[in-house]
Amino acid sequence: MNKLRLLSVLTVFTVVSALYLTSCKDDDDPEPRAKVSFSSANISVNEDQGDLPVTVVLDRALNEDVVVEYSISGSATRRNSTNAATADYQITGTIGEVLIPKGQTSGTINISILNDGVYEDDETIVLTIDDVDSDLVDFGERTQLTITIVSDDAVTVANFETTSFTVSESDGTVELLVVLDQPTASDLAINFTLSGSALDSIRGSSEDIPVQFWDYHIEGFTDKIVIPAGQSSVPVKINIYSDFMWEDRETIEVTLTNTPGVSIGTKSKATINVDQEDGVVVALLWPEDSNADTDVDMDLFIWLALQDDEGPFWFPIAYSIWKDNEDEFLFIPSALENATFAASYVYYSGTDPDLKFEVQFADFVDDQVEPLADRDVFPGSYTLDHINKWDETDNLPLSQMFDMVNSKLENFSELNLDLENPGGRVGAIPVPSGLSISKSGLRSNDSRRIEK
Questions:
Q1: Measured between alpha carbons, how far apart are the two ends of the chain, in Å?
Q2: CATH topology identical between 34-150 and 156-275
Q3: How do 269-275 and 164-168 pair as beta strands?
Q4: Which fold has domain 34-150?
Q5: How far apart are CA 244 and CA 282, in angstroms?
Q6: Which of 64, 136, 152, 180 has the largest CB neighbor count within 10 A?
Q7: What is the pLDDT of residues 391-440, one digit of tens each?
Q8: Residue 99: band (very low, low, confident or very high) from pLDDT cuts 50, 70, 90
């Protein structure tokens, strides 16, 4: 065979072989997988949209049913069995799955946008395709869809009606009015905080401060003020306590704070000034000729006579316990009518010579202290034998008794300093056993002083 013919045969063989191999390769390769995606990547709707069908698509039909699994996230709240009043949307059908039937190219997630009638910032529903139950399907380009819900409601503005006023401790319950610029379509909970120099019951309880030192209590609310549906205002009731501290003016500050769906107005903070009520100041003092400049310590306790099923007993209502030779002050409100009290002037440390002290009872009316010449004054003197041990608080001596009659203290007994024989009315009814008092430096407001 000549070279030209040989070359021609080889050329034909090469072309045929290439065609054969190409044909075999096309027959063996699988068909490319279909792609699944959302029909769009972002949707924005108003809160009054109502039904919102979301479409999941295949780029071509398959000869089998395809179940696409998706997850849900975003800031909007999906309705369930417990949150119907606050939900932003609901999904009907199987949650987290959508079916694309055999021979079709799309399936639908049925979403309903719920209009709650309350202004809110824009919220989102984020749907993400996570899996497909078919080996014939792969993920497409749009596997996540973000739906933005835009509120169609006017923003609600909240304010206090009054931002400042003054009351007395004896006024009992006072009210702050929270007002909206429009009625609320559903219950509206507005966040608030408490501050000021007065002690509220929430902080007093959490910090284990004895209840007799609390100044006020917010009735019905702890951290949110709830305005019922259909209303545009609600009163916040504040119970002012009569306490046994002699104090300067104290303040209760209530502040409305950031709340979803609410715009806090310019009158967001209300201040209540609480002035000391009328009553009697009880002062344990050291006169000029005492040796109080030495290492001495006395404390003042006030007890109230009470009655229960087991009989009468003394209950401690207040104590001023300050370190070293500090004067001690307590206060008895004049509102406590027809009550019997006892006082303990307790000696904890001292040196020779004997410690001279003085107890004064001064009327306090219209923020003025009674002149020294008109007070009930009782001088006393303790020896080292009168010293009490701090851990024996269930055996504190009752040093003096008196009654509150017609807003005045009367029927004072003399100071009884006899350790062995109390006598008279002093110690006539028992002190509760197991009394526990913490020596934490509690006393009335330091800025108050009384003329000696």
A1: 144
A2: yes
A3: parallel
A4: Immunoglobulin-like (2.60.40)
A5: 10
A6: 180
A7: 555 567 788 899 999 889 999 988 877 655 544 344 555 655 555 444 44
A8: very high
